[in-house]
Amino acid sequence: MQLLKERILKDGVVKPGNVLKVDSFLNHQMDIDLINEIGKEFRRRFPSDKITKILTIEASGIGIACIVAQYFGVPVVFAKKTQSINIDGEVYHTKVESFTHKRTYDVILSKKFLNEDDHVLIIDDFLANGCAMLGLIDLVKGSGATIEGAGVVIEKGMQNGGDLIRSQGVHLESLAIIDSMTDTSLTFRN
């Protein structure tokens, strides 16, 4: 998606340790016009009318998933990284290691919101090593729902997450795939 790539080059900041900060437009402050175009693009790439739920993980994926869901006319469900008193009843459970935060989260999703009748599109902002996506896939499989695909805004192609997800037979669409990143430059896969 050319518009996204141009924005990453213009406003993205590469930090030591292969960290790309896009917080000025994607996952802290959000450019809704850009995210609206992202939503349209995911709808174009996933034309299936079978999709009944959009699934993401808190927190950065929620805003993006909400905009995407408007183009599918379905609800968004998000996996939580902490148990709270608001979650009652049974939950699906998995563990997810965060590349950015360097910690492991116990991720939960209420069984009320995902079941074997659902057809799920997973949406997230980043894909690096694939841990969050694998956790979401695990939750969907545990529910008996069908994974219709996974959409990622930015994939770090120089890390193994995309290959790992694709090797599981998941239809993965990444809007921008970064092949290499240094303190002074980024290159994208075509």
TrEMBL record:
Gene Ontology BP terms: purine ribonucleoside salvage; xanthine metabolic process; XMP salvage
The protein's name in its UniProt record: Xanthine phosphoribosyltransferase
Catalysed transformations (reactions): XMP + diphosphate = xanthine + 5-phospho-alpha-D-ribose 1-diphosphate
Chain sites annotated for binding 5-phospho-alpha-D-ribose 1-diphosphate: 128-132
Organism: Faecalimonas umbilicata
Domain annotation Phosphoribosyltransferase: ranges: 23-157
Pfam families registered for this protein in UniProt: Pribosyltran
Pathway connected to this protein: Purine metabolism; XMP biosynthesis via salvage pathway; XMP from xanthine: step 1/1
Gene expressing this chain: xpt
Keywords attached to this entry: Cytoplasm, Glycosyltransferase, Purine salvage, Transferase
Subcellular location per the Swiss-Prot or TrEMBL entry: Cytoplasm
Membrane-spanning segments: none
EC number: 2.4.2.22
